[in-house]
Amino acid sequence: MKGIILAGGSGTRLYPVTQGISKQLMPIYDKPMIFYPLSTLIQAGITEILIITTPEDSQNFTRLLGDGAHLGISLSYAVQDQPLGLAHAFIIGADFVGDDSVALVLGDNIFHGITFDELDDVDGGLVFAYEVSDPQRYGVVEFDASGHALSIEEKPTHPLSSYAVVGLYFYDNTVLDIAQNISPSQRGELEITAINEEYLRRGKLQVRKLSPGNVWLDTGTFDSMSEAAAYVEVLQKRTGQVIGSPEVAAFEHGLISAAQLSQLAQPYMKSGYGVLLEKVAAGDKD
């Protein structure tokens, strides 16, 4: 399975800050925002990843993450010239995906506590739903009495449930053809909801409800970024866990050794992030 991180967009909800820097390069507590979705893909066992950015920010992402070799993974980069929708990522990344299945994660979404099982055997599509208080902001899933998905509607005025589709999607290779054949929405974008609706029409969409113990944070506004940073800070200080660290994810999945993790920690010692990495390398999580 290949992975795609969509880290484009203009970040208008974060102006004026994002007029000078990509949203996904801004900090969520002690690490850049993009570290979090990158670690999610690594935790899902994905080691070949394409990062889609804007033309202005491409070099900054490359300078931050390189080719991924230091993490035991392979990182590639592509450019989205205009914000043409989430589903546009599968058109941009078609050659990268090739004949494989693919996961898409949004560059401003943070996940914690989700376990990934049998992803290589995805037959159709797999998405996750999370109960929210403001479903009008998201793609919303309607379920029947047995918990099976009946419909998905993008940003509905009158939501049929309080379950939002989160920014993490797993598809078989059919998604490439589906993306090529959907039509732009009224706002001129290729919507991910259109892809999910097509899989649902074919009877090939699994919708897995996340439990209250799982965490999904959408960090697209100043308030949500602040809340996410507070969550990461409190959890790391109380538990000793390192949240959203691609270095730790790579170590835990056997992609790098303890010695390599310790080496990666050294440039970050003054910031404190390196101290956390060093503790994990030493097997000390207290």
UniProtKB/TrEMBL annotation:
- Top EC class, one word: transferase
Superkingdom as given in the UniProt entry: Bacteria
**Database matches in Gene3D superfamilies:** Spore Coat Polysaccharide Biosynthesis Protein SpsA, Chain A
Keyword terms: Magnesium, Metal-binding, Nucleotidyltransferase, Transferase
Catalyzes what? Answer: dTTP + alpha-D-glucose 1-phosphate + H(+) = dTDP-alpha-D-glucose + diphosphate
Known cofactor(s): Mg(2+)
Which residues, by range, are in coiled-coil regions?
A: none
Q: A Gene Ontology molecular-function term? A: glucose-1-phosphate thymidylyltransferase activity
Which PANTHER family does its entry note?
GLUCOSE-1-PHOSPHATE THYMIDYLYLTRANSFERASE, GLUCOSE-1-PHOSPHATE THYMIDYLYLTRANSFERASE 1
Indicate the family of this protein.
Belongs to the glucose-1-phosphate thymidylyltransferase family.
Q: What is this protein called?
A: Glucose-1-phosphate thymidylyltransferase
Native source organism of the sequence: Corynebacterium felinum
